[in-house]
Fold this sequence. Notes:
This protein has helices at 3-15, 23-36, 43-55, 70-83, 117-125; strands spanning 60-64, 92-96, 103-108, 111-116. It is an alpha+beta fold. The protein folds into 2 domains: 3-55, no CATH class; 60-125. It has a 4-stranded mixed beta sheet. Helix 4 (70-83) links the parallel strand 1 (60-64) and strand 2. The termini are far apart.
Amino acid sequence: MDKTALYSKAFLESIQGLPEKKVLPALLRFKEVLKNREESHLYPRILRNIIASIEYREIATITSARELDKKLQNSVIKMIRKNFPDLSKEYIRFNVDEKMLGGISISYRDQMFDGTIQGALQKLIGIHK
């Protein structure tokens, strides 16, 4: 891994979980660190890497028939992170689809878990979308 990739990865790890309003000040401090190390010439490439990583970060979507309480949300997050430990909590979204009969569906990357009542009924009678 080259220096640009290492610095990009280190910065992304350092801002994980930070509120958005604190990212820019962290980025400016990071620019100063590079300047002090006489590596400010790497900053444009590092910045492009950081922006690309943030723009293309994958989001896990959990859809349910009703809003899940915090305890149930945390249980679902725990289950997802067991399978995808690199997925941080801020990239998990909860949606409500009132047309669902019940259960939940989870989509992340190219995977889909259908734990809905409709999905179970479709499997039971052999109907696939």
